[in-house]
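Postdoc handover notes: sequence design on the structure in folder B. Input tokens:
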């Protein structure tokens, strides 16, 4: 059995390496163009050469792997966003497109960007796909809604698309596991958002506002964290830092099957994915820097 410290180190390294490869779907110009064709707004802004996603298109496209579900289900699966914002945006999106249509566009746009940036068959693709499949093989869907949705889609059927889908499954599996970890620890979305900012070394409310909660929501969350002795004067207490690290370690351990399945081939897969991720970022397909660098991964909160 692999030591827990090793599991954490390897799980976080893999999550960081695959993030831009899998997560580039949210910044893909090919995706944005397809969504605009359905009637969604175009990318609202460009930050550092990276096209940001339209809100309704983001929630509907990522949520489409769950099927034609209401916004309440999308908000629950994503975990960290304010349902008061998600619900009407999803309802609007379903007036423009079906889940099946936008899911297909999501896949085509993600594969299109990767093929444009990396080439249709980048060096090491077959081996990386083999290892990603091995990492997926032991995973179970219980309590993992977004992972299960992707599992139900099967693989796209072309080499780079299959690699991307397997990477996206691992990304969402960790995200689902992260939500399970922080909800089990007794935190809600606003509380984990504030704790995560401090964990990343960011000032309170510098990133969590992107989750669309109100100032009063965050004020109440901070008051609850202070009452629990986890935050004081806008900073972690020792107990707060330990509690947030516990959430991450539990997340890592829930990803233990991935680490154990890869075994001694872990570093090979991480190296390949990290090289592709750097290429995707250099091409403007994913942000070159941000909170994901501080965390070593994104996912969840």
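Designed sequence:
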């Amino acid at each position: 059995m692999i030591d827990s410290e090793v599991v954490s180190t390897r799980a976080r390294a893999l999550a960081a390496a695959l993030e831009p490869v899998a997560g580039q779907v949210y910044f893909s110009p090919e995706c944005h163009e397809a969504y605009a064709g359905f009637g969604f707004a175009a990318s609202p802004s460009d930050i550092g050469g990276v096209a940001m996603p339209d809100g309704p298109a983001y929630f509907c496209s990522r949520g489409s792997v769950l099927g034609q579900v209401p916004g309440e289900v999308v908000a629950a699966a994503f975990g960290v966003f304010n349902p008061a914002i998600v619900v009407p945006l999803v309802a609007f999106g379903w007036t423009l497109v079906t889940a099946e249509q936008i899911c297909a566009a999501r896949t085509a746009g993600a594969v299109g960007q990767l093929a444009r940036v990396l080439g249709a068959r980048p060096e090491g693709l077959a081996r990386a796909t083999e290892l990603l499949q091995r990492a997926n093989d032991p995973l179970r869907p219980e309590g993992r809604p977004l992972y299960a949705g992707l599992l139900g889609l099967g693989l796209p059927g072309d080499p780079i698309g299959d690699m991307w889908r397997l990477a996206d499954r691992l990304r969402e599996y960790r995200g689902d596991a992260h939500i399970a970890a922080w909800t089990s620890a007794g935190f809600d979305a606003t509380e984990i958002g504030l704790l995560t900012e401090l964990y990343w070394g960011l000032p309170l409310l510098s990133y969590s506002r992107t989750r669309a909660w109100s100032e009063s929501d965050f004020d109440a969350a901070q008051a609850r964290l202070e009452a629990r002795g986890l935050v004081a004067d806008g900073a972690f207490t020792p107990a707060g830092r330990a509690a947030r690290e516990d959430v991450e370690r539990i997340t890592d351990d829930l990803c233990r099957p991935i680490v154990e399945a890869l075994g001694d081939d872990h570093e090979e897969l991480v190296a390949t994915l990290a090289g592709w991720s750097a290429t995707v970022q250099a091409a403007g397909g994913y942000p070159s820097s941000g909170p994901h660098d501080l965390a070593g991964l994104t996912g969840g909160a």
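Context for whoever picks this up: Residues 294-301 have pLDDT under 50 and may be disordered. Don't rerun without checking with the PI first.
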